[in-house]
Amino acid sequence: MKYLNVSGYRFITLHNLPELQQGMLEALRGAGVLGTILLAEEGINVALSAPAEAIAKAKAWFDQDERLANLWLKESTSELQAFTKLKVRIRPEIITFDGGKADGERGRKKAPAISPKELKAWIDEGRDFVLLDTRNDYEIRSGTFKNAVDISLANFRDFPKEVDAALADGTLPTDKPIVTFCTGGIRCEKAAPYLSDAGVQEVYQIEGGILNWFEHYGAEHWDGDCFVFDDRHVITPELAETNAWLCRQCHTAKPFGVACDCQSGKRSAAETV
Questions:
Q1: Which of 62, 166, 224, 246 is the most exposed place for a label (fewest CB within 10 A)?
Q2: Per-residue buried b or exposed e for 199-230, using 16+ beta carbons within 10 Å of the residue's own CB
Q3: Whole-prediction pTM value?
């Protein structure tokens, strides 16, 4: 059986979160989908996996709510169902950044988006700009854009501290365009505005993130694969699943049968199936 895996987000003000959570759980259980949804007053973050007809039912339920209608969900298929449970959780933020304590509008400010087509043109013509990977270090080990800047994030909540240090030591310039990217775009919704606030003159984010780039251009200008936060662990630039296992000690994804460099020997449940 083929499974359809969808993911996306929307920054939009949501109220009555417990009521929304309960209604969503009931509807998605009824549709027969598995995955994780995060709800916060700032919006929604969605990752689901199911047969195509079940995903269609889930989308129809989202569409009946004007706040969630026409949610952009990036798609890939796999032989493996990417999740084993359905979870709908309420959090202070749909992507952890400042604990919900900083400027509440920051998460809703959005840097200009650059399409995959325009970004490819920039790279092909050798334009002078910086590609900044805003993902965690263990994600970057699976793959990233060629010549991208890595500021060694152990966790995205450390982004402000690490960016401030990178600006101070010149790793990141303030006078060149910086294009931020992450898996699906959600982290750049907070990372890019922070860079602008910190004095970078020209900041962009890749429209739809890495997944949208893969959909248009696959492995062009890319090294490796892409880490994902589900039971596939890693997908290829062709949006195909890989036979990867996840080290629980350092979170590094490795091909099946290849030991992790940290020598922990701790494998994910998926490897033992």
A1: 224
A2: ebebbbbbbbbbbbbbbebeeebbebbbbbeb
A3: 0.90
Q: Give the residue from 95, 50, 229, 13 showing the smallest Cα distance to 61.
A: 50
> Which amino acid, one-letter code, is at 102?
A
Q: Domains of the chain (ranges plus CATH)?
A: 3-90 (3.30.70.100), 106-224 (3.40.250.10)
- Give yes or no: 262 in active site: no
> Which of 182, 188, 226, 260 does the annotation list as catalytic?
182
Tens of pLDDT, residues 161-210: 999 999 999 999 999 999 999 999 999 999 999 999 999 999 999 999 99
180/195 Cα distance (integer angstroms): 10
Cβ 166 vs Cβ 151: under 8 Å: yes
